[in-house]
């Protein structure tokens, strides 16, 4: 998932000058994602940038990192997807703002089909490499994962993407300015066939983005069915600041 810049916070802490103030509740302190984080007993393997890495061209490239909201959503999907399949052989999903692919690849590791989407050439290269790293385990479970570039401000013709049973995202509205483009992407996804449900994992950092999202998503034709605190339901895989929204179209 594409998370916040260093000035706001990072996965494992806030970078100030050359010092890093570690957030002890960050899930990335527990996992290296090189076989120690599993979905359905199968390892999720990811290449990602450390939280304090700065790129000369891209600065703090949020989509190349792993964020608490993405890890929480991965474990929430592991718990929730079996109840959502309702006897169907496979769900087809879309992840918006996939970043390194934590949630989307977890969905595929459960035997589902998913399109991971984000923007930028460097992001595409990183996400596709993570798909390749996990292809063996995904195929063994009967799943499928692919990548598509998707610019929320210049959305493509919807028809070629087909039907989606579920759309999900994590840590994509960490700033108020991202709320409207995200809702525009949701409305685009919902304009096609199928869509039964939207899941959004959000790490609460400020009330402005939360308030705008909850207001604007209703005006866009969606209903917030649940707002689930992650820690009580997921335990050590949850986070005290991460909530899961369940949305449906009106």
Describe the structure.
The structure is a single chain. Helix content is 30%, strand content 25%. The protein is of the alpha/beta class and 250 residues long. A seven-stranded mixed beta sheet has the order 7-6-5-8-9-11-10, sandwiched between helices. β1 and β2 form a beta hairpin. α1 (68-84) runs parallel beside α2. 43% of the residues are buried. The model is unreliable at 4-22 and 53-60 (pLDDT under 50).
Helix/strand-derived category reads alpha/beta
Helix content: 25-40%
Q: What is the molecular shape?
A: globular
Low-pLDDT runs of 5+ residues are: 4-22, 53-60
Computed over alpha carbons, the radius of gyration is 17 Å
Mean pLDDT: 86
Side-by-side strand order of the widest sheet = 7-6-5-8-9-11-10
Oligomer: single chain
User: Strand count, sense and closure of the main sheet?
Assistant: 7 strands, mixed
Distance between the termini: 26 Å
Quick one: how many beta strands? 11
Characteristic terms for this protein:
single chain, 250 residues, alpha/beta, 25% strand, globular
């Amino acid at each position: 998932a594409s998370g916040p810049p260093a000035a706001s916070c990072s996965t494992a802490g806030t970078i100030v000058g050359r010092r890093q103030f570690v957030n002890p509740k960050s899930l990335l302190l527990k996992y290296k994602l090189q076989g120690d984080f599993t979905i359905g007993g199968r390892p999720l393997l990811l290449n990602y940038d450390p939280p304090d890495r700065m790129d000369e061209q891209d600065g703090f490239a949020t989509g190349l990192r792993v964020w608490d909201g993405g890890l929480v959503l991965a474990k929430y999907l592991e718990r929730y997807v079996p109840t959502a399949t309702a006897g169907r052989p496979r769900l087809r999903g879309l992840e918006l703002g996939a970043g390194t692919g934590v949630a989307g690849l977890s969905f595929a590791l459960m035997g589902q089909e998913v399109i991971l989407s984000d923007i930028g050439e460097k992001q595409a290269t990183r996400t596709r490499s993570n798909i390749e790293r996990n292809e063996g385990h995904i195929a063994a479970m009967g799943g499928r994962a692919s990548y598509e570039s998707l610019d929320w401000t210049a959305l493509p013709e919807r028809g070629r993407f087909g039907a989606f049973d579920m759309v999900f995202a994590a840590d994509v509205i960490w700033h108020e300015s991202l709320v409207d483009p995200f809702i525009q992407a949701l409305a685009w996804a919902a304009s096609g066939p199928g869509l039964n449900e939207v899941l959004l994992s959000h790490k609460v950092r400020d009330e402005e983005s939360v308030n705008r999202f909850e207001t604007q998503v209703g005006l866009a034709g969606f209903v917030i069915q649940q707002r689930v605190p992650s820690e009580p339901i997921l335990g050590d895989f949850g986070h005290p600041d991460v909530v899961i929204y369940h949305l449906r179209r009106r």
